[in-house]
Batch of 3 targets.
Target 1
Amino acid sequence: MNATRKTSPSAEGQRQLDALRQAVGKTLEKKRRLGQYAVTWKGGRPVVTGDDAPGMGLTSSEPTDAARACSAEADHERGR
C-alpha cells in the first residue's frame, strides 16, 4: 500500500486551522489580561506562564515539575 502525504491542508482545512489559531490567540490574550496562567508547548515541552502560575519562582520559559513529569510520561509512551 502506498500512502501519500499532503504537505498543506485543503482550503477548508486551512480555514479551520485559521479559526482555531484565532480562538486560541484570543483566549491566551484574555488569560493574560486577567492575570491567569496558561500552559503552552515550547521547545517540545509544556511551559506554564503567567503571574499566578503554579511553581512560583520560575521564569516564564521554565517548565514546572508537574509539566516535566507529564512530558516525561508522554516521552515514555512514545518510546523515547
Note: The two ends are 28 Å apart (CA to CA).
Target 2
Amino acid sequence: MDAEFIRFVRLKADLTQAEMASLSGVSQAVVSLVEQGKQPISPKLRHKILTLIDNDSELIEQYQLYKETELKARQ
C-alpha cells in the first residue's frame, strides 16, 4: 500500500480528504500528507483503509491495471 493507492481508494469511494480522515480516525492533514508521500502510512491508517475497502479484490485489480497503464504511458 502506497500513497497513490490511498488517493486512488479515496477517489473511487468518492470521498473528500476530510471524509476519508473522519472514517479513518485521523486528521485531514494526515490524509493529505500521506497522499503526497510526505508522511508514512501508519499501521492504524493502513488497517482502517483495508477495513474501509473490505479487501475489495476488484478495487485492488483496478488499481493494478491503473498502475500498469500509467507505466506503459511513461515509456
Note: Helices lie at 3-12, 17-24, 28-35, 43-53, 57-74.
Target 3
Amino acid sequence: MAYICNICNENYRNLVGVIEHQKMEHTKEETKYKCDKCKRGFATKEARNKHRNNVTN
C-alpha cells in the first residue's frame, strides 16, 4: 500500500515516511524557495530543485 503526501502527492511505502517527508519539506517556511514554473513553495533549495527537475521533464 502506498502512502501519499497530501501536499505534493509524493508516494511513500509507509506512514512514517510521509510524516518525515512533511516535517522536512513542508514546514512553516515552505514558501521560502519558489518554483519559477508553478510558483509552489518549498522549505529547502534541494526540494525545490527536485520538484523543478520533475516539472520540466
Note: The two ends are 27 Å apart (CA to CA).
